[in-house]
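Sample entry (498 residues):
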Amino acid sequence: MGSTKHHIVMLPYMALGHLIPFLALAKKIHHTTGFTITIANTPLNIKYLRSTFNSIDLLSGDIHLVELPFSPAAEFGLPPNTESTENVPDYLIGHFFASSIALKTPVHDLLSGIAEKEGKSPLCLISDLALGFWANDVAKSLGIVNLTFSTCGAYGILGVISLWQNLPHRKVINSDSDSNSDEFHVPGFPENCRFHITQLNPFLRNSDGTDVWFKLIQQQFSNSLQSAGWLCNTIEEIEPLGLELLRNYLKIPVWSVGPLLPAEMLADSTEKPSKHVGKQPGIPAEICVAWLDLQQPCSVVYISFGSENSINPAQMMELATGLEKSRKPFIWVIRPPTGFDRKSEFRSEWLPKGFEERITSTKQGLLVRNWGSQLEILSHKSMGAFLSHCGWNSVMESLSQGVPIIGWPLASEQPYNSKMLVEEMGVSVELGRGLESNISSEDVKNIIEEVMDENRKGREMRKKAMEARKLIIESVKENGSSPRVLNDLIAMLLRTKC
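Predicted structure, serialized as tokens:
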């Protein structure tokens, strides 16, 4: 007997920063529609997602987690059991990106199996942009609508797409001009909006249009542009320009399906987020909160470079010294610097001699090894600034709490997120840019003082961050843009199905 309930299948990329927003979107769609949602991924990633489920999620029974067979290690030159970017060294990241093609047949079998079992095809496949070079083909082959989900913001992902499609920086690199300008215009952005060569990751900066990365990404974008539309983890209110530019460039529908954050972070109240489950924090959340409770309101700097990034050893030394010089209290989620095994034990030699002992005895700082309870930390009243890699999940979490950002973008679309936060929103200043930045301890001290002290710039940044928080909170209310956009998206899918 066929099912009367609609079914949506979701396919995230194999990375923590993608899995989390996909799960949040699944919960949001299910809460709004009651549809059955299946999230499919590799066994280890499904195990992680299952560990984040609470009892309410498990009781609902309509969000299914399905393991797909995935063993491309030998074919793509990857270590055994490599299923997430978290465990992939930088020099193999291209191999891992390409290895997702091994999921193509299992995804086809999953979709056709659902259609056979339920007597009708899934309402749609929501596939990650990073899987665009094959996911849309699978959906088309089965007559299923495909939607491309970019877990980034609109401005940031437009930067990535246009730069890779047009390589406008080649004119600067190949120029014989004496101007020595490293700035250039990127198609899709206003003429007066200039990008800088230091905002490009090495793969992009070195691409000449003939390399393997370029060819793979061209295929990814061209196939994704054949989907029925794009979803972005953002809202109309905080990215009006980015969304307008992205829609004009793509020329297909774009739905702003954010903010994909826990409901308690979006409450217009002092209620704290419930304990986040999944990864084991380096220090129990209760200890972090107890330490934060001892600090003055808006006085603490939080430092985290996301779940997969770190800085180089010299930068780490200067950052530590600058933090200590600033005399501001801080929480630093710290992991080994670049060039060392991400999973290895953190060594005291990577920090100034006696650093941890001094900040512990003076109660100036708290070091959290490997992973911290970011939601609990950012939502605390003592939080004054977030020194961040500007990954979009972290940006949305910070702005949802009205916390201004000190940007140090490291990879992917992060430099373009940072550019937007500084130039369009005025909620951030940039400390560094990538692993090549020569950051001094004085730079760190001065920029922390600039953001944290009650000078004109610091006050203005905090004011604008609080305005962004209000916009985010308003967006999820009954008459806000978030439920309205989601309802429009579902209506489109139902019309297409009919």
